[in-house]
Each structure stands twice: as structure tokens, then as C-alpha cells.
């Protein structure tokens, strides 16, 4: 069975970070919640709250300094970036149908966009049912992606 991780990239809002953690922990098939490059209040206030949430419910939490560590430290085989504004990106359903041992769904959780080096580590995808013009926040993107993945896993 594929191990699946939800990754919050560069979160700046403690509230968004906590909402993403709650979302990740609400899906039984998620193996861990990963925070990469937390900044500002998300790092100072949000991360301690997420740690308490993970500890209280026996869930996994990883905090990393860069996306490359998803492969280097956690040995995650496939990285999938959700980027709604990317016109040529395939729908996430078409990207994750590959037979992999581990998969990370990565959302932009703050104001810092993904750079080209980060994107080169994996695959770009989007949620085709969502607008490319009005990109939703990371929580909505993650929820839609995880719902699609749950249907594929059935």
C-alpha cells in the first residue's frame, strides 16, 4: 500500500497550518503531516499547536528545512505539487495513478511560491474542477486532492 503524506510548504499563518494539520489527520490513509520551511507566526505559534495536536492523537509530524529532504530523509518516492495557476498541469488523478511506494502531496501554504529547483523534484498537478484564475487557499486544494486520492485508493 502506498504511504501518503500531506506537505505544507512555507506556511506563514498559524491558523492555516493548524487547519492543514487537522485536515491531514482527519484522513485515515495519511501517514504523516510534513511542514517545510515554516516562517513567522506559523513557526512561532502554529507549529507548537500542531505538535500538541499530533502528540495528543498519536499522529506523525515532520518539520523539514527544504523540500529535497522529503526524498533524502523520508525516502518519499513521488512528490506532487498542487499548482492551480499552471495551465498545462494535468489533473492530480492522472499524476497519482502511478504504482509508487510513497507519495507526498505538496501545497503552497504561505506567500512563498515554489521555485524551479523545488518543482524539478516532482510533478506539477492541479485540481481540474477548481478555477485557475481564482486559486483557492492551501486547505481547499489539499482537501480536494485528498478526496480524489481517497477515491482512487478504494
From TrEMBL:
Protein name, as recorded: RecB-family nuclease
InterPro entries linked to this entry: DUF2122_RecB-nuclease-rel
Naturally occurring in which organism (per UniProt): Ignisphaera cupida
Pfam families (UniProt xref): DUF2122 (PF09895)
Amino acid at each position: 500500500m502506498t504511504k501518503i503524506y500531506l506537505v505544507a510548504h512555507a506556511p506563514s499563518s498559524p491558523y492555516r497550518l493548524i487547519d492543514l494539520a487537522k485536515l491531514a489527520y482527519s484522513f485515515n490513509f495519511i501517514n504523516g503531516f510534513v511542514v517545510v520551511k515554516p516562517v513567522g507566526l506559523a513557526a512561532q505559534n502554529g507549529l507548537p499547536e500542531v505538535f500538541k495536536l499530533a502528540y495528543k492523537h498519536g499522529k506523525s509530524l515532520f518539520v523539514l528545512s527544504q523540500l529535497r529532504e522529503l526524498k533524502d530523509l523520508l525516502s518519499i518516492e513521488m512528490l506532487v505539487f498542487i499548482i492551480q495557476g499552471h495551465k498545462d498541469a494535468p489533473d492530480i488523478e492522472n499524476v497519482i495513478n502511478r504504482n509508487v511506494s510513497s507519495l507526498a502531496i505538496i501545497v503552497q501554504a504561505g506567500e512563498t511560491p515554489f521555485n524551479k529547483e523545488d518543482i524539478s523534484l516532482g510533478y506539477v498537478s492541479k485540481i481540474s474542477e477548481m478555477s485557475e484564475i481564482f486559486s483557492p487557499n492551501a486547505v481547499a486544494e489539499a482537501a480536494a486532492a485528498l478526496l480524489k486520492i481517497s477515491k482512487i485508493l478504494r
